[in-house]
Amino acid sequence: MIPRLAKELRPLLLPWSVAALAAGANLAAQANPVFAHGEFGSFLTGLAGVAFVVGVLVLAAMPTAVELHERTLVMLFSQPMRRTQLWKEKMMAATIAIISLGIVHGLASAATGQLTPPLVILYATFAVTAICSVGYHTLATGSILVGIACAAGLPWAIALSVHLFVYYALGFQVDPSERATLALVGGASAVYSAFFLWLSRRQFARCELRDTVATHAAQIPAALIPKTLSELVRSRPTGATANLIRKEVCLQKPIFLVSAVFAVCWLLTLMLMILHPAWHENLVSVFAGLTGTQIVLMVIMIPCVSLGDDKSLGTAAWHLTLPVSARRQWFIKLFVAAATVFAMAVVLPMFLAALTLFKAEVGLLAIQQPEEALGFFIVSTIVFVISFWSASLVNNIVRAALATIVSLIGIGTCALLGGWVGLEYSPGLQTNLGVRIVADESLNPTIVPYSMALVVLVVTIVALLQSLAQFRRTRSSNVIMLKYSLILAAVTFVGAFWYADLIKSSQDQRLLLSPPQPHPQRKP
């Protein structure tokens, strides 16, 4: 049993390490007085909580998702062992990984004084619920992404439905205390977890594979798709480029299902806001959370699905033999992924936010300042490009998403380090340019956004060129991955250093050219 358990735990090591790294970063930030009370420390605290939640969901889904993506579920079921024993080993691996992750995050939170008993109960309840239910949804949908979305959205939908039934059908107004709320959440979670644990064991024991799981992963039922739309994405005898675009759109089926879950959760929240006006402020925060979750998932997962699905299905090398250049295929993937991100992360949230305008300005419509919109665009572009770059270097969707998170942390660290070195130790290498900026008043308000946009553009071009070069290869070696990572880190560091040095040179020249302030005379 020990070798089989080690086999189940091995794929969980990378996502566990990424989630545990966030706890370590939060502990290091809170231990430093410079970051403990600043925005960066608050960001790392929130990042640690998000990393724990996402890490628990991924770790609960991975034991089943690995078999689906590697297409080894048939071989697993053919082993001379009872299926219930195989299911127990997978559940044990997920439980060990999640409990150890909870211990790491708990110790980090306790060391920083952020751990409270209600928070422990809520996170423990969430972890138990995820262990018992995510595996069922992953195997039922055939997709880790859709399985996680269903596992996260179903309890919310059930809780909202029960509340509406109790409040409006039965006429009971429930406003429990904090202790009663925790008891209610714990009891409901216990029933929900026990039911899905039994359902997951039953499903795994009676699962019949009629076709390759990968071909029907996260497939939308044909009855729900209009015939016109189905004909639109069907391949034609002619038009190679158009057929490749249709193929890329079909690869995004899990993304469309996740977006549908997001839309349903949004509409249910809007219904609750209409029926329960006293919860207005809390539900506005829920809208903000839904919008942020949708945007982050779309920007990270769409490029991973675009490049990762072909590699998981084993068709990436075969596509390179088509009478279409690899460069054109890469551009088509990039174009379709960017268009899908725009539709699912911008158009859909704005449309739903427009439907909510009669109650409140929420979501993307709550952004009022142009600087906020520019920052949102720059950050989204960086995350999208890094996700596309990461998916070019690894072999499946899960590793691509994890590599994206690790790469973003590394690039952010290089950018902060380059900016810090430029501000603290640079002697002002761009003095002449700083003089011109100070002399020309028209350049003063535009130098900061234009300089930042230039740095982002250079990093983006380097990452995309590396992605194109790697797309021509069927597999990537560790040496190439390390080489590309170091080049991208160096470009990011140099760009951040140049930007910080430019700002410092301009500020120094402005101080030199400003008239001296008269010193107040002392009265005798």
Brief rundown of the structure:
The chain is mainly α and 524 residues long. Helix content is 78%, strand content 0%. The chain has a domain at 220-366.
Model description:
The chain has a domain at 220-366. The longest helix has 36 residues, at 478-513. The chain has 524 residues and is mainly alpha-helical. The chain is 78% helix and 0% strand. It is built from 20 helices and no strands.
Number of helices: 20
Query: What spatial form do the alpha-carbon principal axes imply?
Result: globular
What is the N-to-C order of secondary-structure elements (H for helix, E for strand)?
HHHHHHHHHHHHHHHHHHHH
Estimate percent helicity: over 70%
The first-to-last residue Cα distance is 92 Å
Residue stretches low in confidence (pLDDT < 50, at least 5 long) are 212-218
Radius of gyration using CA atoms only: 26 Å
Structural class category: mainly alpha
Number of strands: 0
**How would a textbook summarize the main sheet?**
none
Average pLDDT, all residues: 79
Q: What fraction of residues sit in β-strands?
A: under 5%
Task: Supply the key terms.
78% helix, 524 residues, 20 helices, globular, mainly alpha
List the helices and strands and how they pair.
Blueprint (H helix, E strand, L loop, with lengths): L1 H8 L3 H19 L1 H4 L2 H32 L2 H5 L5 H29 L5 H25 L2 H26 L8 H29 L20 H6 L7 H12 L1 H23 L4 H34 L2 H4 L6 H30 L14 H24 L3 H28 L6 H9 L7 H25 L6 H36 L11
